[in-house]
Amino acid sequence: MNPFSYGTVVKEPYFFNRTEEIVRIVGTLGGGNNLVLYAPRRYGKTSVVMKAMDALKALGFVCIYFDFMTVYSRESFIEAFSRAVLTSQGNFSKAAQTFSKFVKGIRPKITFDPSGAPEISVDFSATAISEQSLASVLDLPDKLASAKKKYIIVMDEFQDIARLNGENFESLLRSRIQHHAHVNYLFLGSRTHLLNDMFTNKNRAFYNSAASMQLEALPEGETVEFLIGGFSRSHLALSKEAAARLIAEAGGIPYYIQFLASEIWQYCINRIETVNDEIIAACAGRILDLKGDYYFELFDRQTVYQKKLLKALAADSQNVFSAEYAGRFRLSAASTTQKALSGLINSGMIEKYKNYYTFDDPFFRKYLLRLSA
């Protein structure tokens, strides 16, 4: 069995490290405070949060996971959020009664799929959703909670709240949850620049409303040991130097480390005993070939100037607005570069990290370098 996992929430035995981060998440939320978790895409934040939720459940908290990525309107928010809250209840009938008592114009219902599994949804009796109905749905967790039964609400891809009438919805949500005595919130998302603005911009509703936490890259030493251990369980030898090379090829990003390690394992199992640099490079090349059509489409959709800028960023991501950088890569004025870069950041391809820019996908960067070769 392949000892490496990617593409889904990573659990044991594939999950490793992050002990300090989980302790801090559990301590902050369990201590009665809200938390916003910043992390670039593919850093494993959802896997970390799921582990923290397990620990909080063991302490007696009711934990509810809600993903804003599935939301496109107020109605879809109400239906998805209500379903998430009601599904978390052991006694649906009692929870439905509480729902009907406090939320007007919306009725919860339960049906059963062909296999007999329950499915929870809501009916809207009114043609338009009132502000009061929406506020009542937001208050529902606090109505169900108590001093002896506290709730933790995880709101993933929280920056996508902007789809719901922009900052007006932000303000409404903030005005409700600040009064919740027995519910605490964990906000996270993959668009870190948008999430950061929501909590650090004094003109935004959620300004300074939660403790902040940055999810950093995994420590290289422990990642090396994890990789060596994973391969050794299949009787494949991996030196510390080769493990470090694998991590570098994957850009140090947890998802891509597991992705590349998985490809190497498949390449080697039952026919090769030692993983070396040549094999790592060959498997990285296989991933590039596998995703080549996708990368072509992604690159082709960009403007001419964004294509030029992407190639420049692949070669060097520092001092992007300097005259020297513009001259070296034949770019236009800094204002033009700023506009193009903002588009790439908003699309999720590029993230600003400290004083330089990183690619969400390190293999897309390799693809661009291949194009420029």
Outline of the structure:
The chain has about 375 residues and is an alpha/beta fold. It has helices spanning about 20-30, 45-60, 75-85, 90-100, 130-145, 165-175, 190-200, 220-230, 240-250, 255-270, 275-290, 290-300, 305-315, 325-330, 335-345, 360-370, and strands at about 35-40, 60-65, 105-110, 120-125, 150-155, 185-190, 210-215, 235-240, 275, 350-355, 355-360.
Model description:
The chain is α/β, with parallel strands linked by helices and 373 residues long. It folds into three domains: 19-214, Rossmann fold; 220-290, Helicase, Ruva Protein, domain 3 (Orthogonal Bundle); 293-372, Arc Repressor Mutant, subunit A. Helices cover 51% and strands 14% of the residues. It has 16 helices and eleven strands. It has helices at 19-30, 45-58, 74-87, 92-102, 131-144, 166-177, 192-200, 220-232, 240-249, 254-268, 277-290, 292-300, 304-315, 323-329, 334-346, 362-372; strands spanning 35-38, 62-67, 106-112, 118-124, 151-156, 183-189, 211-214, 237-238, 274-275, 350-353, 356-359. Helix 4 packs across helix 5 (131-144) and helix 13 packs across helix 16 (362-372). The longest helix is centred in the last third of the chain and has 15 residues, at 254-268. It is globular, with a radius of gyration of 23 Å.
